[in-house]
Design a protein that fits this description.
This protein is α+β, with helices and mostly antiparallel strands. About 20% of the residues lie in helices and about 35% in strands. It has one domain.
């Protein structure tokens, strides 16, 4: 009998090992499920609730700054960085105001904000349909300051239906000051600093090089 015990035990162990459960291999299907969960989470960003705070503006969008900044501010809302607003705009040193949603929302969202420094300035930000920020650009060239002899200043922005962009600062001086701050009233001049650009099909904002025009003796 002893000669049959070992083979029986060995045979029993063999069947036990071969019938033990094994972990299921990771398949592409499992990876697809994980990707679907991640994508679903992205879609839960509350971008649609956020853009409801902005009024829709038709094309062409036109902005005239400096003289009319109080007008734009009165028609905007201040972002609350202790709320979900912080998901869509990075906290700034000063208040940030939401103003408008551009009318074409077929591929991405384009929002107009106003940042604050010495004065309000417009900012264009684009977002994917999931709420991810795609691109951001300030829509001024230099802005307005308190230069000696400055009589008039404005900064303008225009965005057309094809999402072409034109921005320009116009500064008009009734005279200029030299390096010693001596005012010369007979040196009146006007300067236009401009840039053109485009929001491409991916939502990326691209602005070209600055151009300058100057005119003498314009009053």
């Amino acid at each position: 009998m002893k000669y049959y015990i070992f083979p029986a035990i060995a045979l029993s162990l063999f069947y036990s090992c071969t019938n033990s459960p094994k972990p299921a291999p990771v398949t592409d299907k499992a990876s697809d499920v994980a990707s679907a969960v991640i994508n679903s989470a992205k879609e839960e960003l509350p971008i649609r609730n956020f853009i409801k705070k902005f009024k829709v503006v038709p094309f062409p969008f036109y902005y005239l700054g400096w003289a009319r900044n109080e007008y734009y501010k009165s028609r905007s809302f201040e972002l609350n960085f202790n709320s979900t607003d912080s998901l869509f705009y990075k906290r700034a040193d000063g208040p940030v105001y939401g103003y408008a949603l551009l009318a074409d929302t077929s591929k991405f969202y384009s929002l107009i904000y106003f940042g604050t420094a010495e004065d309000l300035y417009p900012v264009l930000v684009t977002y994917s349909k999931n709420g991810d920020q795609l691109s951001s650009e300030t829509l001024i060239v230099h802005g307005c300051g308190s230069d000696c002899g400055l009589k008039y200043c404005s900064y303008t922005a225009q965005i057309n239906k094809d999402l072409g962009i034109y921005i320009a600062d116009t500064l008009k001086y009734e005279g200029r000051c030299d390096s010693a701050d001596h005012f010369n009233p007979n040196s009146d001049s006007t300067f236009i600093f401009a840039k053109t650009g485009q929001v491409d099909k991916t939502g990326t904002i691209k602005l070209g090089e600055e151009t300058t025009q100057s005119f003498k003796g314009i009053r």
